[in-house]
Write a structure and sequence with these properties.
The complex is a heterodimer of chains A (about 300) and B (about 110).
Chain A (H helix, E strand, L loop, with lengths): L7 H8 L16 H15 L3 E3 L3 E4 L10 H9 L5 E2 H9 L2 H14 L3 E4 L2 E4 L8 E2 L2 E2 L3 H9 L7 H12 L9 H6 L1 H8 L3 H12 L5 H5 L6 H15 L17 H13 L4 E4 L4 E4 L14
Antiparallel strand pairs in A: 1-2, 2-3, 4-5, 6-7, 8-9
Helix pairs in contact in A: 2-4, 2-5, 2-7, 2-10, 7-9, 7-10, 12-13
Chain B lengths: L1 E7 L2 E10 L4 H13 L4 E12 L1 H16 L3 E5 L3 H9 L7 E3 L2 H6 L1
Parallel strand pairs in B: 2-3, 3-4, 4-5
Antiparallel strand pairs in B: 1-2
Chain lengths: ~300, ~110
């Protein structure tokens, strides 16, 4: 069933949100940024903005979709407009992870699915039901994916990518019991590998070097420039970026935006920061799902 | 990409060659779905000359298979090169399609 109401990153976020707004522990981890980045790329592929093969992402129709999350990614891909390895794009968008975490929640709030109360993300409805769209209640994504796995139906592309993301992010326990995961292991694997980006996430997750950020920044007192360079070095290592030209402008030495980044690092005393591409504001990374994006922008 | 149609008894054979990618998946999809809409119930795609397929191309096959099942028809694939077979294997598509080594085998099925 096609669902244009929610994009795939939003569907993934909702799946990882408990009935009472509790967040799955795996989300509070920088590794989840890879999940979000991959979900965005998969959604762009379904909209024919990009195409993929086993290795590369190939730009296709890079026109805005009027989606606050996907359009930012489209703008990024437009900067290059050449086929590039899938893993490079996962890395590039993962660097913007905190921004996307915040935007996903903002978007779900604006669509009337979630609300924020006392800095807590809550469902608007007492149970997991999305609003009516064109007199039709959208089937909640978890029921849809479960039905698919328990049947021998040919999957829709959208459901393939959601299942693929959940599998590679090790989040299948949000949808299935241990027994179900065991009983339907083959069916889940069969569906999850039907997307090339999904296959690439698996490799990324395995290779991802998760730094202990506190440990990385501890030790002798460092200047703002050193702290920022440490952070850039960490990101480059983590995402295996070898060319400084592939860094976003706010992390690229010599640009006016880099100087502003440096000012923020100086003010906050930490290099573990991110930049919100929409509000044009910086924030300290929190790795919470809603981050610092609500009411405390800097 | 080049696409040719021919009939063999009840079966419609699509000879697909070249590259199926961003630049032509839409026209391939249009042609294939036209056959499905015309009520063809037994379609065989002969892929002997196909040397590249992207995700967009794979998705056309997936949608066509879904529609074919709804129509109680059959969509079979045959004569894949090693390279295309590898893509179908890696992506798991080979588990949901009927794939034959030779066209004669597909026709006899």
């Amino acid at each position: 069933m096609e669902n244009n109401f929610l994009n795939i990153p939003e569907e993934i976020a909702l799946l990882a949100l408990g009935e009472n707004g509790e967040v799955h522990p795996k989300i509070k981890n920088p590794k989840f940024d890879i999940v979000i980045a991959s979900a965005i790329l998969m959604d762009l592929a379904l909209h024919h903005c990009i195409d993929t093969d086993r290795v590369n992402i190939i730009p296709d129709k890079l026109e805005p979709l009027n989606d606050p999350i996907l359009d930012v990614a489209i703008e990024e891909i437009k900067r290059y407009n050449d086929p590039l390895p899938i893993k490079d794009w996962i890395a590039e968008l993962s660097i913007m992870g905190q921004f996307f975490r915040d935007e996903i929640i903002k978007s779900l709030v604006s669509k009337g699915v979630l609300k924020i109360e006392d800095k807590q993300v809550l469902w608007v409805f007492s149970k997991r039901v999305y609003p009516l769209v064109e007199d039709k209640e959208i089937k909640v994504v978890n029921a849809r994916i479960r039905d698919l796995v328990f049947s021998d139906e040919i999957p829709d592309p959208q459901d393939i990518v959601i299942l693929s993301v959940l599998k590679h992010a090790d989040l299948l326990d949000v949808l299935f019991t241990d027994k179900e995961l065991d009983d339907y292991k083959e069916r889940i694997s069969q569906i999850a590998k039907m997307d090339m980006i999904g296959l690439a996430i698996g490799d990324e997750m395995d290779d991802f070097k998760l730094y202990d950020i506190k440990g990385f920044f501890s030790g002798e007192e460092k200047s703002a420039e050193e702290m920022l360079e440490d952070h850039i070095h960490e990101l480059k290592e983590k995402f295996r970026i070898t060319d400084n030209g592939r860094l976003p402008e706010w992390l690229r030495r010599g640009t006016p935006q880099y100087e502003k980044t440096l000012e923020f690092v100086r003010e906050k005393g930490t290099g573990d920061i991110t930049f919100n591409h929409r509000s044009k504001k910086y924030q300290v990374n929190s790795y919470d799902f809603i981050g610092h994006g609500f009411g405390s922008g800097n | 990409m080049e696409l040719k149609f021919k009939k063999d008894g009840e079966a419609t054979i699509l000879e697909l060659s070249g590259r199926l990618d961003t630049s032509n998946y839409e026209s391939f999809s249009d042609e294939l779905f036209k056959k499905l809409d015309e009520g063809d119930k037994h379609i065989i795609v002969d892929m002997e000359g196909l040397d590249y397929i992207s995700s967009s191309g794979l998705r056309v096959f997936l949608s066509a298979l879904k529609k074919m099942k709804d129509n109680n028809g059959e969509l079979a694939l045959c004569c894949m090169s090693d390279k295309i077979t590898e893509v179908f294997d890696i992506s798991g598509f080979s588990t949901i399609f009927k794939i034959f080594v030779r066209l004669d085998d597909a026709l006899a099925d």
